[in-house]
């Protein structure tokens, strides 16, 4: 029973997060994208990190689901295929590699989320530089995009950590 409920809740939550990423970004666009600052919501990444660290038996196909969610994200939100389709499974792989060595508590998951958020944002930045989608320098990226993005997403992590953890524990 545990496996079937978790296998249903994970993709539903993933696509809810995918929908909320775009919807909340649109609703709060005046606050998130106030020139020169740009804060990108990463609820999909948050849900994926929770799944990697709170799924005790690694029953979920998180890598495959994250690639599919990345493809949908690229197709619908960015218009440039491959960015998030590669970045999200990369984060799943890296998180699974470090998971056995970590004590899973709030602060550890917070730090892992910060690191993964930085990896995804840096990956997107480099991808966009190579594709000549943007031309900002590294300092501007760090100050005007990475910093505000980390701040907003850390607030969301703090708000959502305990409810999502309780959901995973209840389903387990």
UniProtKB/TrEMBL annotation:
Keywords annotated in UniProt: Cell membrane, Cell shape, Membrane, Transmembrane, Transmembrane helix
Subcellular location: Cell membrane
Pfam families registered for this protein in UniProt: MreD (PF04093)
Main subcellular localisation: membrane
Transmembrane regions: 35-54, 75-94, 106-129, 141-162
Membrane topology: Multi-pass membrane protein
Presence of the UniProt keyword Transmembrane helix in the record: yes
Family per record: Belongs to the MreD family.
Entries under NCBIfam families matching the protein: shape_MreD (TIGR03426)
Name of the protein in question: Rod shape-determining protein MreD
Gene that produces this protein: mreD
């Amino acid at each position: 029973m545990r496996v079937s409920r978790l296998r249903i809740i994970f993709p539903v939550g993933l696509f809810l997060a995918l929908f909320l990423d775009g919807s909340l970004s649109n609703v709060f666009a005046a606050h998130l994208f106030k020139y020169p600052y740009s804060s990108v919501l990463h609820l999909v990444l948050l849900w994926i990190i929770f799944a990697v660290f709170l799924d005790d038996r690694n029953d979920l196909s998180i890598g495959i689901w994250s690639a599919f969610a990345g493809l949908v994200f690229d197709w619908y939100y960015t218009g440039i295929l491959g960015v998030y389709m590669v970045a999200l499974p990369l984060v799943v792989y890296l998180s699974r590699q470090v998971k056995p060595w970590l004590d899973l508590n709030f602060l550890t998951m917070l730090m892992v989320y910060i690191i993964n958020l930085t990896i995804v944002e840096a990956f997107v930045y480099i991808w966009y530089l190579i594709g000549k989608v943007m031309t900002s320098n590294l300092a501007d990226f760090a100050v005007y995009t990475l910093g505000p993005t980390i701040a907003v997403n850390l607030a969301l992590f703090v708000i959502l950590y305990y409810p999502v953890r309780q959901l995973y524990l209840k389903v387990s």
